[in-house]
Every structure is written in structure tokens, then in C-alpha cells.
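ESCALATION

Customer reports they have been waiting on this structure for their group meeting. Please prioritize. Original submission:
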Amino acid sequence: MVKSMTGYGRKSLDMEGVRLNVEIRSVNHRFLDISTKLPRALLFLEEKMKSQIKESLARGRIDLFVTIEGQGLLTRKLEIDWAIVDQYISHLQDVKKRYQLTGEITIDMVTKLEHVFSVQEKEGDIDGLQTSLLAAVQESLNRVIVMRSEEGERLRKDLSSRCETIHEILHKLEERRPFVVEEYKERIRSRIEAYTREEMNPDESRVLQEVGLLADKGDVTEELTRLNSHLQQFLNTLTIQESIGRRLDFIVQEMHREVNTIGSKSNDKQITEGVVSLKSEIEKLKEQVQNVE
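Update from on-call: job pushed to the front of the queue and completed.
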């Protein structure tokens, strides 16, 4: 089954005075590469989230974003260090007595003392959010999968259509091939006669054998057969229920190799034109295959 590597999913979760936003983006990549951006308070869930992704996706660059809105996960509390206050008051009274100073120790003086008041931040019940957050990640991931499947179906139709075009070109080349072989033999025979300046001698079978060997070097039958085989393998692979992108890429490389061989062996104008068309279609196949998981 053809699946694209491009997808997007988002899920927002409201609970306990906080809003969690989960986003997953997927783009092309040779392997499965997962990147996460999480608040520090949620880093302990990173590996679980990555495991969720690995269970569902085989290839692609995956970016997972989790953001927090609100202060529900963080509790602030004002703390007073009474021990410090006691020491401050005690020392101030000692200074007052020792130097016979006048005046009272006021609340205004106390509030200006250092390290007396501090704000302590405490994390809320993160564990209580774990189940809901992982469920939100899974829902976002499901939406990515749906988008990749829908885009994959469009890719399958396009790839199948291009394979049909390639098949038609190959059929024309196969029809042309016998005429090319005969024309090639005739050209070789004519050159030999022109070189010897005489008709074939009684040992014509020997000469014809040499002509056949030379003509065989320009025959592209094997390459056309292998191309048809690769084309069928490509179509069969489109129906496999697993990650097929790398396999398709390998088949396309083999098709490209066979077409190059045909181009180097043939001097026929029509076959050369067919080779150009084949290269163009196979290159388009290659571009599309880069999007397949």
C-alpha cells in the first residue's frame, strides 16, 4: 500500500487549568528521524511518545511539538525564612543596644531585608496528565496517518499512470526492434561488400555469421525484457502492505540503468526518441518515489 511521508496532525487538550497543544509534522526523509520539542516538565514522556510514533510510521522526518498554555502545571507559593528573620531582628537589637540607637524596627524595614521572602514553584500533578497527553499524541498521529494515506493514494494513481505510459513506449520499441536488427544487418552487409568491392563469396555463411554477431551487439531485446520485468515488479510493489519506498527507489534505479544501456547500443532514430521519453518518465517516477514511505 502506497503511503506518503507528508502529513500533519494537531490536538488540543484542556484540563486542570491548563491547555496542552500537540502538533506532529511529517516530511520526506530516507529513514525515520524523530525530533521532539517538549516543555521541561514533560520530558519524562519523550521516549513513550517516540515509541508511539515508531509503532505507526516507518520513514520520514517527524517533528513533535507539545506546548503548554496557562499555569495549571505550576504552583507558586510565597515562603518566609523565619530563621533569617529571627537572626535579622536579633542582630538589629544588638546593634541598637551596643550603640545606644533610638527608633523601632518596623515592618517596612523587615520587608526590605534580603532572603526573607522567596517564591517557590512546584509542579502540579504531571502524572495525572500522562494518560490524557499520550492519548492526544496518538490522536494527532492518527490524523498524520490518515493524511499520509490519502496523499499516498494520489501518489499510487500517478505512479500507475506513469507506468502505463512507460509500458506503451516499451511496446512501441519492441515493435520497432525486429526492423532495427534487419536494418543493422543490411548496413553491415553493405559495408562489407563495399570494402571488398565484390559480391559475397561462396563462404557467405561465415560472413553472415560475423554480421549476426555484430548485429547482436546492437540488439536491445534483453534490455527491453528486463525493463518490462522491472515495470511489473514496480506495479506489484505498489500493492504490498508495508513500507515500500526504498524498494521502489531501487527498482527505478535498475530501470534507469537498462534505458541507458538501450540508448548506448542503438543508433536507430525512433528508438533514440523512445529512450528520451523513457528517461523523462522514469525521472518523474524517481521524483514521486521520494515521497513514498
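Sent to customer with the following note: Helices lie at 46-56, 82-98, 107-111, 126-196, 204-217, 221-237, 245-265, 269-289.
Escalation resolved.
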